[in-house]
Design goal:
The chain contains two helices and ten strands, in the order ααββββββββββ. The strands form two sheets. Strands 1, 2, 3, 4 and 7 form a five-stranded antiparallel beta sheet that branches. By secondary structure, the chain is an alpha+beta fold.
């Protein structure tokens, strides 16, 4: 019969080992941190251009949803001179007032490296020397006035095209006129 030698050494006193439960807890905490931190990290990797297109798309989508759900008209006001936009909501008396209660719809300024050139809206071209903001209407059915927003980013021309019934925004390379 074969015998095995007895264990002659034991771990030194005070030496610690991790239990399976402790390891699982650490993995769970790391997963939570990754879920919270990953979107912020991804936004750092996105270009300024893509971030702005995503923001504008989110604003249009939210306006369409709010307009349909609340049976209210909204206006996306583009201030071409100041390179920014803000949102207005129509009240029961037909007057429009700036929306301040929704964080996503607060006034937004385009970054310095993205310069608006002009806006084509309903067959009319508005330039950056326009004193008044230009309204893009979102009616209660969710219809968005079709538009072409021309701008430059890092020396290249781009067009942001907004379509009417779908409210879809499309980023096109170059100065597109249709």
């Amino acid at each position: 019969m074969r015998t095995f030698p007895a264990r002659t050494s034991s771990p030194p006193p005070g030496a610690a080992a991790f239990t399976l439960v402790e390891l699982l807890l650490v993995l769970a905490l790391l997963s939570v941190v990754m879920l919270i931190g990953l979107p912020a990290f991804q936004s750092l990797l996105q270009s300024t251009l893509q971030r702005e297109v995503n923001h504008a798309t989110g604003v249009i989508r939210l306006l369409r949803n709010e307009a349909v759900l609340t049976n209210t008209r909204y206006r996306l006001m583009l201030n071409l001179k100041e390179n920014r936009y803000f949102v207005e909501r129509q009240d029961d008396l037909g007057r429009f007032a700036t929306v301040e209660d929704l964080r996503e719809l607060r006034p937004h300024k385009f970054p310095r490296e993205l310069q608006v050139q002009d806006l084509v809206l309903l067959g009319r071209t508005f330039h950056t020397d326009e004193a008044e903001p230009v309204p893009i209407l979102v009616d209660a059915s969710g219809y968005v006035d079709p538009f072409l927003l021309h701008f430059t980013h890092d020396g290249s021309d781009y067009t942001l095209r907004g379509s009417g019934f779908t409210g879809r925004l499309e980023l096109l390379t170059g100065h597109v006129d249709e």
